[in-house]
Amino acid sequence: xxxxxxNPNFVEKKWQSIWEQSGIFQTKNDDSRRKYYVLExxxxxxxxxxxxxxxxxxxxxxxARFKRACGFNxxxxxxxxxxxxxxxxxxxxxxxxxxxWTYRNISIMREQLKSxxxxxxxxxxxxxxxVDYYHHQQLLFLDMYEKGLIFRKKSKVNWDPVEQTxxxxxxxxxxxxxxxxxxxxxxxxxxxxxRISDYSEDLLRGLDRLDQWPDKVRLMQRxxxxxxxxxxxxxxxADTGLSVTFREIEVYTTRPDxxxxxxxxxxxxxxxxxxxxxxxxxxIEDFIEECNRGGIxxxxxxxxxPKGVKSGLFVIHPFNESWRLPxxxxxxxxxEYGSGAIxxxxxxxxxxxxxxxxxGLPVNPVVLPTGASPSDFLIRxxxxxxxxxxxxxxxxxxxxxxxxxxxVRNRLENKIVEGRPQxxxxxxxxxxxxxxxxxxxxxxxIPIIFCKHCGVVPVPKxxxxxxxxxDVTFDRPxxxxxxxEEWKGVQCPNCGDSAxxxxxxxxxxxxxxxxxxxxxxPFENLKDVSIDHWLPIDQxxxxxxxxxxxxxxxxxxxxxxxxxxxxxLEEPFKGLLTQGMVMHETYRTSDxxxxxxxxxxxxxxxxxxxxxxxxxxxxxxxxxxxxMSKSKRNVVDSSRILASxxxxxxxxxxxxxxxxxxxxxxxxxxxxxxxxxxxxxxxLVIRAADxxxxxxxxxxxxxxxxxxxxxxxTLKAVTDDIEKFAFNRVIAHxxxxxxxxxxxxxxxKLCDQEMxxxxxxxxxxxxxxxxxxxxHLAEECNEILGGEQLIASSPWPVFDxxxxxxxxxxxxxxxxxKKCGDLVISRNADKSKIERAVLxxxxxxSxxxxxIPKRIIIVPQRIINVVL
RNA sequence: GCGGACGUGGCGAAAUCGGUAUACGCAAAGCACUUAAAAUGCUUCGGUCAAUAACCUUGCGGGUUCAAGUCCCGCCGUCCGCACCA
Length: 868
Fold this sequence. Notes:
6-stranded mixed beta sheet, 4-stranded parallel beta sheet
């Protein structure tokens, strides 16, 4: 009888509708089983599900299905990170309202996800642009505002004068706006901030407890928070005849030991003193203006060389009244860090050295590496930044860097200048407060009203939500909300006079900072829900590209939600798996347009690859492999592959070769193999069902015992590896298992009742083990074999540990560390028994040739090494 | 520049605590079945070699060890994060 081919398109639809009707993936909050919350980072509804999504959600689904089988009450929801710039860009391009564009994409992508068979609780779905979602976000905002976690301040932004909008650093290309091409200005704007820096220390400490996070991510966050221990030191201004309101300059340093190597003081261009000087001095004014040109990123990216101007001021050295140092205004000093002023020590800081070399300032080494002699230790173009001993530093001479730091600190903390200590210790963080104001339409409105009498007035909670108006136009540059007079104009809730709404919306990172808490009970009032029942998330899965910002913001938000009484927890994500990116080559025409891989064909000639457009045969430039993104058009959509192979094959293939953390370059080679395997399992089960129904006769053979052992061993290995997220190894075990099972059916006549029991168990194990990855095939196979319960709601099988261990084992025998043969011996044999057995091995006797081995190393249950 | 990760067949990769290097898959080649193809099954597949013997082999050079892909030192290369953080 010819076996029909397995038809995934038909079978997958069938099981998807059975799952949906049975509601087994809808999670109840009142369930006595232990909870398990698994979440994959929710997608931005860009249009279609691509292979990166498939990889991410396949991993999450394996975990969800596995944990469900292990008896947990699993929460596995899905939503949409739906606010953001691309919707507005699409609106401009296609004359389609951002809302319409977004919801249309969501419905397409929802269907795509459903056809991939993910075990998601769709009853909890929401989009961040749903009014209900951002209503709660506005409530959260007001609660945080009450608790002092939100404030306004002036801050430097990239301003595009043509678009009349603020640009992110990534949108500034060579100092010009990415769309308008106009030169970007550095402007000061009053912006809303979250006080994340209040939690710098806490966010840093919390990392130590996140032991189920990758070390790499914890390190990245640690560096991002950037804690340093230093000293504020006040330097008194010397009398130069120049009249300024300042009497001193306070600098921040982490290297007070180098104070005798100081050559200059430098202050930031935004330093109040610099601004004061600029009012009187044209040269300084011009310099500051030059630094402000080209946006904030330009000044950072212009790493080429430090620049500065003399202020005309001098300071007095704290340890020597007669020592004067010049004060510069310099582009490389940041106002946002420390006090916006530094003392420069050229010998021991590379930037200070470059600056000194440029402006002819002295370079005096004060730290000497151990063993170096002062006469031949010269600093020219490379600063010495490592540890050593102090020289040329009076009372510090001979001390180590660490000792010298505390000596300087002690002395200056105890030296009173104008009624205050000259120095104070201070811990500084690199982490800055989180600016959330965006001059955009498609985001969550900030629930604030500006009144000319009452100032900043929060919208009363009873007046929420502040709904984003639909009737906006995109016919001119700038934020459409700003031009929407009707929406903007309100009565002040305080005094009743006419007032104005805040027209900025929130950064979309705010939306994704707490969505995981909303899934807990998406249609109830957040305040009334015990989010602590489900949180923290047991396993969070998403791309490494979110290792810093998203994860840090979410950690901050959890703390903010604790302070505002929503939770008692601080950390939202207990376990974290950062999955690698799915990459693809990019292709660009000679006109600089990006082309999709579907629009080209690639030929290989003499080892050179050449890409041509399918439409007209034009040569296309093959550009580097990059993360799949819409802008580079190298996205591979899942639906075409889904149509040809089915969901199970894609899921299996996405997880089969590489470990989850690794980046992969998308290639379809191999997907045929994955599909062959699907067909192979199908044939195996069809044949098995047939054989198991046949007449009984004959008796059990030893092969059955071997099969039982292999089944239990495989089950153990697969269970262990799923728990470690080693999906590629899970798949390798299953390939081996299926291959052995096939041989078994080929060679054995399954006529004995007991043997059939073993076979049946093996098949049940197999179906259970493939189910997390290939759930549809598992259900179909189970049905063929007469299983009555859905695999999706069946328990994970239990292996017998005794069957996973053999009584005898094969130990490799080495001579001088090289393998020469094996010794088959009982597993529990002791060293002396093993030694006797080894010495009687034929190949060893002939190699020894009468000699006596120097040593025999026996590692029980592992290896034997005979040293000659 | 600083911090981190990595380097194993033609390719994706495996090797858990220092203990049989190359599991599993892809690609390739051969055979069987077939009128033929597809599908399927079987076999081979790191290198040198006539060889199933022997030797070599985890980027390169050293070292520690009975034993090194794994640990240490020094190079070379690739990737990622931060980028004037005083």
